[in-house]
Amino acid sequence: MKNSIFLKTLKGEETNRPPVWFMRQAGRVLPSYMALRKDYSFSEMMADPKLAAKVTLLPVHDLGVDAAILFSDILVIPEAMGMKLEFTDKGPVFENPLKDEANPLDCLLPDSSKLEYIYANIEEIIKTRPKNIPLIGFCGSPLTTFCYMVQGISRNHTFPEAVAMLYKNKEVAKKILERITDLSILYAKNQIKSGIEAFQLFETHAGLIPQNLYFEMIMPSVKRIAKAVKETGTPFIYMPKGLGFGLEKIEPSDADFISVDWQTPIEKARQLIHKDIGIQGNLDPRILLADKQSIEKELNNYLEFGKNNNNWIFNLGHGLIPQIPFENVKFVVDWVKNADWK
Ligand code: CP3
């Protein structure tokens, strides 16, 4: 794919504006998605390649974003390890979280064939997508996946038992993390074989634990996934939300781009992050709940940064949330496409 502004930026080529896409774009802010959700559950849409491809491409058609992200979820990995999972209206729920098991490792039986329906979805997306729109594949980063597996659902996102296991029961935690990582690597490679053109690793909960524990327990797994993806020539984006000053320890072999959260000002992130790594981010999605004037004021703050930094992808600091009006998201896409970046 030669004329994708998103892929050009990922590869370090000059473009006349930053590319734009949003985490969680394939979902609840789109009226077209909500209409489909009246007839099908999340799992039903995932199980049907035609529907999964349709939902993946909705934000491309409705919002005009520069890339599509696979319609799936990070929790398909625990599911493929034998954990029973249900997507309810309140979010995903595991039937037997690992915190309740005497021997958690005995409960994990990775079966990679359980991920095959997703490769069929990718092939259908590649067949039906508009020209020059690349497809981003993804998986959850090992800590975030581990948190959900151990804790089950955690409404306030503190995952106390999962964090306790990282301190108290390091050897078991390491083995669980290793199994997540082995399956994630296979999954990433198969996504690439099926046609994705870039890969993002979602570490939503990097900020849950101190930096030194993150680098001790989690970073070796991130490095393995990064290596496996980068070896194929596929650009690798890493989103370590809440990592803070840990950003300065990430090496170019760990990521081509880092997706930065809203806690770190983008100019500060640029100073912290290695110069050979690009930046994605980092608008607070909640500003999109405000009026257009307030949104535009916030967007104007990015002009100077965008003029000086070609290796930047416009995105949010975290995913879109359901309460955000569709028109405001469209306003941002149009603004990025039409602003004066020279
Ligand atoms: O970005 C995209 O639009 C692509 C698809 C995608 C989904 N989930 C679809 C989804 C991606 C990349 C994810 C990642 C994901 N899933 C993360 C990491 C990124 C982040 O947002 O923090 C996490 C932690 C999950 C786990 C998860 N899945 C939760 C906590 C929930 C419930 C809350 C919510 O946002 O609805 C989900 C469900 C989910 N995943 C939905 C979608 C579209 C909602 C399903 C529905 O319509 O009911």
> Any idea of the CATH class?
Alpha Beta
Average of pLDDT: 97
Q: What is the count of structural domains?
A: 1
Instruction: Just name the CATH architecture.
Output: Alpha-Beta Barrel
> Would you identify the regions where 5 or more consecutive residues have pLDDT less than 50?
none
What small molecules does the structure contain? coproporphyrinogen III
Largest sheet: 7 strands, parallel
Radius of gyration: 19 Å
Query: Which oligomerization state do the chains in this entry correspond to?
Result: single chain
Report on the structure:
The protein has one domain (5-338): TIM Barrel, CATH 3.20.20. It has 14 helices and nine strands. It has helices at residues 5-10, 31-39, 42-47, 49-63, 76-80, 116-128, 142-151, 160-168, 170-194, 211-230, 266-272, 292-300, 303-308, 326-338, and strands at 68-69, 85-88, 91-94, 135-140, 198-203, 236-240, 257-259, 278-283, 312-316. β5, α10 and β6 (236-240) form a beta-alpha-beta unit. α4 packs across α6 (116-128), α8 (160-168) crosses α9 and α12 (292-300) runs parallel beside α14 (326-338). The longest helix is centred in the middle third of the chain and has 25 residues, at 170-194. The relative contact order is 0.14. Coproporphyrinogen III (CP3) binds at residues 23-28, 37, 42, 69, 71-75, 87, 91-92, 138, 140, 144, 202, 204, 319. Residues 23-28, 37, 42, 69, 71-75, 87, 91-92, 138, 140, 144, 202, 204, 319 line the site of coproporphyrinogen III.
